[in-house]
Request: fold
Amino acid sequence: MNGPNVTVIAGGLSPDREGSPRPGSREADALRQSGVEVELRDVGKDMLPALAQNSPGCSSPCCTASSGRTQP
Reply:
Protein backbone atom coordinates (compact mmCIF):
# COMPACT_ATOMS: atom_id res chain seq x y z
CA MET A 1 0.00 0.00 0.00
CA ASN A 2 1.41 3.42 -0.94
CA GLY A 3 0.37 6.25 1.30
CA PRO A 4 1.05 7.95 4.56
CA ASN A 5 2.62 5.84 7.29
CA VAL A 6 0.90 6.25 10.67
CA THR A 7 1.62 4.48 13.94
CA VAL A 8 -1.35 4.34 16.30
CA ILE A 9 -0.12 4.02 19.88
CA ALA A 10 -2.65 2.12 21.98
CA GLY A 11 -2.84 0.59 25.40
CA GLY A 12 -1.52 2.21 28.51
CA LEU A 13 -0.01 1.56 31.87
CA SER A 14 -3.07 2.21 34.04
CA PRO A 15 -5.16 -0.44 35.82
CA ASP A 16 -7.79 0.02 33.07
CA ARG A 17 -5.33 -1.25 30.47
CA GLU A 18 -7.44 -4.25 29.39
CA GLY A 19 -9.98 -2.07 27.57
CA SER A 20 -7.46 0.46 26.27
CA PRO A 21 -6.45 -1.17 22.97
CA ARG A 22 -10.02 -1.12 21.58
CA PRO A 23 -10.16 2.60 20.73
CA GLY A 24 -6.73 2.34 19.10
CA SER A 25 -7.85 -0.64 17.03
CA ARG A 26 -10.94 1.26 15.87
CA GLU A 27 -8.80 4.25 14.92
CA ALA A 28 -6.34 2.05 13.03
CA ASP A 29 -9.19 0.30 11.17
CA ALA A 30 -10.73 3.63 10.15
CA LEU A 31 -7.38 4.89 8.86
CA ARG A 32 -6.80 1.67 6.90
CA GLN A 33 -10.25 1.98 5.31
CA SER A 34 -9.18 5.47 4.17
CA GLY A 35 -6.12 3.99 2.46
CA VAL A 36 -3.55 4.90 5.10
CA GLU A 37 -0.73 2.50 5.93
CA VAL A 38 -1.08 1.88 9.68
CA GLU A 39 0.88 0.08 12.36
CA LEU A 40 -0.85 -0.49 15.70
CA ARG A 41 1.73 -0.39 18.49
CA ASP A 42 1.14 -1.22 22.14
CA VAL A 43 2.68 0.86 24.91
CA GLY A 44 5.60 -1.07 26.34
CA LYS A 45 9.35 -1.19 26.70
CA ASP A 46 9.86 -1.90 22.98
CA MET A 47 7.69 1.01 21.79
CA LEU A 48 10.31 3.78 21.64
CA PRO A 49 13.01 1.67 19.92
CA ALA A 50 10.42 0.47 17.38
CA LEU A 51 9.28 4.03 16.66
CA ALA A 52 12.89 5.14 16.25
CA GLN A 53 13.60 2.26 13.87
CA ASN A 54 10.44 2.56 11.75
CA SER A 55 10.21 6.38 11.72
CA PRO A 56 6.48 6.77 11.04
CA GLY A 57 5.35 9.87 9.19
CA CYS A 58 2.89 10.45 12.00
CA SER A 59 1.96 8.90 15.33
CA SER A 60 -1.45 9.02 16.96
CA PRO A 61 -1.59 8.30 20.70
CA CYS A 62 -4.77 6.57 21.84
CA CYS A 63 -3.86 5.55 25.39
CA THR A 64 -5.55 5.31 28.74
CA ALA A 65 -4.70 8.08 31.16
CA SER A 66 -4.45 7.61 34.89
CA SER A 67 -8.11 8.65 35.17
CA GLY A 68 -9.07 5.56 33.15
CA ARG A 69 -10.42 7.62 30.27
CA THR A 70 -9.07 7.15 26.77
CA GLN A 71 -7.07 10.14 25.65
CA PRO A 72 -6.67 11.00 21.93
In short: The chain has a mean pLDDT of 76. The first strand starts at residue 5 and ends at 11. The chain is about 30% helix and 30% strand. Helices lie at 21-33, 47-54.
